Amino acid sequence: MVGLIPAAGANPLDTRLATLRVAAAGVFGQATAGQAAPRTIACWGDSLTAGAGSGNILTSSYPARLGVYADRTVYNGGREGERSGGIAARQQGVPARTAVERVTIPASGFVDVQFSDEVFFRTGPRSLVAGTLKGVAGEMARLGETGTTHRFTRTSPGAATDVPINTAFYPAAGPEYRGADVIIWAGHNDAEGPGGLADDITPSSLRAPGSDGHLNATGYDVLAQYIYDAYVSQRW
Prior knowledge:
This protein is an alpha+beta fold. It has seven helices and 13 strands.
C-alpha cells in the first residue's frame, strides 16, 4: 500500500487527496511484445469515487476520467454514503461478518441478518450487493437508513442453510477484481460531529454547487490527472 502524500504548502485539494491510498503495480501504457497487457484498475470508495456532483458518473467520475488518461479498463466501485467498513467489506479486504444471532436462510426468499457496527451497505440507488452467504448466492441490502440490519435474498431456491454468528458475506465484485490494480479512497463518511471536515475546503472552482464536499466534473478530472501522474512518476 503506497500513500499519495502532498508536499508542504500544497493546495486544499492536495490535502483532501492525502487520504487516498493506492495499491498498484505495473506501468501505464500499451503492452509491447513479451509484456502482459495492462491490468484493469479497480477504484473502491464512497460518493467521491462514485462521482457524486459530476453530472455524469459514467463519463465524469474520477474512475471514468482515469480510464481515459491511462487507456485502461477502470471499475468504479464507489457507493454513496458508505463508511470505510462497508467499502472494505465490498472489496473483501475485511469481510463483513454476521453478528448478534444465528439465522437460517430459507429454501426460498430472504432472511434478515446483522453485521458488526463497523459494517453497513448503503441503501438507495445501486444498493443491492450481490454475493454469497454460507455458500448461498443472493443479494444483500440494508434495511432503513440507520442500523446494521440487512436483508439477504437468495437468488434461486435450494436447501435451507444455517448461518452461525461470525459467518462472512462475500460480495461478488471483490474476487472479480482481485488481480486488478486497486485504488481505495475512504473515510469521508467516517468523520463525526460538526465541522469534522470544515478546515479541509476544496476550491470552489472544483466543487459541486451545494454539495457536502463533492467535486464537480472539473474537480474529478483534476483528481484523475493527479492519480495518473503519481502512477507514471513512481513507475507503478
